[in-house]
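User: I've been trying to design a sequence by hand for this structure and keep getting stuck. Would you show me what you'd pick, starting by listing the structure so we're on the same page?

Assistant: Good idea, let's start from the same input. This is the structure you sent:
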């Protein structure tokens, strides 16, 4: 069994402010250690379920957060960014059996995590087919395009609720809840143990897990914080400026949506 793990940091246990998410800030160290512990637990859970190959994408900011030496020897770790439109799922292909998302977070336009956002922080809102899109949904469509099911998600409670509303059969662990600029987290060790157990159960139950339905066509609307970013990005081929802060793009093929997002978000 071949498993893909994509790891972000804003949905890791305890992480609350941007300084904890930034590589060169002293506060990053504790967040990086917990992110690594949660990914290691997911790897152990996958191995317990029979995984023989595990690819891990360090998918936050610089892509250089995870401490490689603390991951199991079966892991291939992807650091940095190749520039491929799959972004947080770089190197994913049809040969994988399941996807695990660790440390994921609520999207822009929601209040369930003090660090809520979707892709770049200058984006106020991304809607796909008139549905507010988190990074879980954007990556979920990539996974659906490649017919690899997302089997497990950990992150903030708002995201876990969204996962259950969006698709059935995905197991989740909510490690914290955001209230205003604060978070309430479970104990880091409890989070790690629950992630390990739930990833095992998720991969064992994989045949029951339905992949996300891929719509036949896509209308993407991005609302920017600054009007000049909307003006500039509306020059992407096929995109149009529909309001001073809003760019719209339509495509039948989700890969074209990803190519658009790579250049404008
Ligand atoms: Zn991130």
């Amino acid at each position: 069994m071949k498993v893909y793990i994509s790891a972000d940091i804003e949905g890791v246990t305890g992480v609350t402010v941007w300084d904890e998410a930034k590589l060169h800030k002293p506060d990053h160290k504790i967040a990086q250690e917990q992110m690594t512990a949660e990914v290691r637990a997911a790897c152990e859970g996958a191995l317990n379920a029979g995984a023989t190959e595990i690819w891990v994408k360090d998918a936050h900011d610089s892509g250089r957060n995870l401490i490689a030496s603390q991951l199991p020897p079966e892991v291939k770790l992807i650091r940095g960014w190749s520039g491929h439109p799959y972004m947080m799922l770089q190197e994913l292909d049809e040969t994988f059996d399941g996807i695990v998302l660790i440390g994921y977070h609520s999207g822009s336009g929601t209040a369930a995590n003090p660090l809520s956002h979707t892709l770049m922080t200058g984006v106020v809102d991304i809607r796909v087919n008139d549905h507010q899109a988190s990074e879980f949904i954007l990556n979920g469509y990539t996974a659906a395009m490649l017919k690899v099911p997302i089997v497990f998600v950990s992150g903030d409670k708002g995201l876990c609720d969204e996962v259950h509303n969006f698709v059935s059969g995905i197991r989740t662990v909510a490690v914290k809840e955001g209230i205003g600029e604060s978070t309430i987290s479970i104990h880091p060790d409890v989070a790690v143990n629950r992630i390990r157990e739930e990833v095992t159960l998720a991969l064992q139950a994989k045949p029951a897990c339905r992949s996300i339905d891929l719509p036949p066509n896509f209308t993407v609307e991005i609302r920017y914080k600054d009007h000049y970013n909307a003006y500039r990005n509306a020059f992407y081929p096929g995109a149009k400026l529909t309001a001073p802060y809003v760019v719209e793009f339509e495509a039948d093929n989700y890969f074209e949506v990803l190519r658009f997002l790579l250049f404008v978000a």
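That's my pick for every position. To get oriented when you compare it with your attempt: The chain has a mean pLDDT of 95. The first helix runs from residue 28 to 48.
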